[in-house]
Amino acid sequence: DAPTPVSNRAPFDSATCALVERLKPEVVSFHFGLPERALLERVRATGAKIISSATTVEEAVWLEQHGCDAVIAMGYEAGGHRGLFLSDQLHTQVGTLALVPQIVDAVRIPVIAAGGIADGRGVAAAFVLGASAVQVGTAYLFCPEASVSALHRQALHTATDSQTALTNLFTGRLARGIVNRIMREAGPVSSLAPAFPLAGGALMPLRAQAEKQGSSDFTNLWAGQAVGIKHQLRATELTRQLAENALKILSPR
């Protein structure tokens, strides 16, 4: 018999909010929309800036209307979970190049570009499109400080631009990762995947056995489409390089 799906994931609740109140971070970033208003007001009362991800103009406008201080324009290229929350339509998702300027035109709050940005050229392009900042993910997974498994790191180093796909097999929600056996044979998107966040629990026995044998066949290997732009730098060095190279492009010659 298949195992009963379980998950250690939980929504942003009062206990998590209490942690924010105690630690008082400068920024609190949400995904899949925003928590209920009472919790959001508690976060705001700490003085934290509130941001969240939008995958469409409609979502960005909704986030602004519900009190976000900035919005992350998350293009189709981005690795990890899609932040979509007003729609579940995979085939209408928008790429970063098209999404960022449209969101910039639609909202008054700062826009943070995300998805496919992995070097100074991408940073510069985002600013030309009107973004106020960028959010970089996959490029930092190559840094020695990144807490990724040895199997994940190996997959990152061999993956090319065309070897990622959106899948719902690992959590029940769409997320972009490096294609592996389970994605090829069962998906990558399947109507049989348990609802979020239970799908991952259903795969855990297979994943555990495969990883013992040095295989990532059943492991989520989150990465974006810019995975082919590989860096061998520490996080501080990468951050400095991204900024310096973008400034060289944007500075008048």
Question: What this model shows, in words?
Answer:
- The strands form two sheets. A five-stranded parallel beta sheet has the order 1-2-3-5-6.
- Helix 5 (120-128) crosses helix 10 (235-250).
- It is 38% helix and 13% strand.
- It has a domain at 14-137 and 233-250: Alpha-Beta Barrel (TIM Barrel), CATH 3.20.20.70.
- With 253 residues, the chain is α/β, with parallel strands linked by helices.
- The model has no long low-confidence stretch (mean pLDDT 94).
- The longest helix is centred in the last third of the chain and has 16 residues, at 235-250.
List keywords for this structure.
alpha/beta; 5-stranded parallel beta sheet; 253 residues
The neighbouring-strand order within the major sheet is 1-2-3-5-6
Number of helices: 10
Largest sheet: 5 strands, parallel
Kindly, what is the distance between the CA atoms of the first and last residues, rounded to a whole number of angstroms? 67 Å
Instruction: Give the helix proportion (percent range).
Output: 25-40%
For the secondary structure, the number of strands is 8
CATH topology group of the domain at 14-137 and 233-250? TIM Barrel
Global shape: globular
Poorly predicted runs of 5 or more residues: none
Integer-rounded radius of gyration: 19 Å
Task: Please provide the ordered H/E string of secondary-structure elements.
Answer: HEHEHEEHEHEHHEEHHH
Query: What is the CATH superfamily label of the domain at 14-137 and 233-250?
Result: Aldolase class I
Strand proportion, as a percent range, falls in: 5-15%
Structural class: alpha/beta
Calculate the mean pLDDT score and round it.
Answer: 94
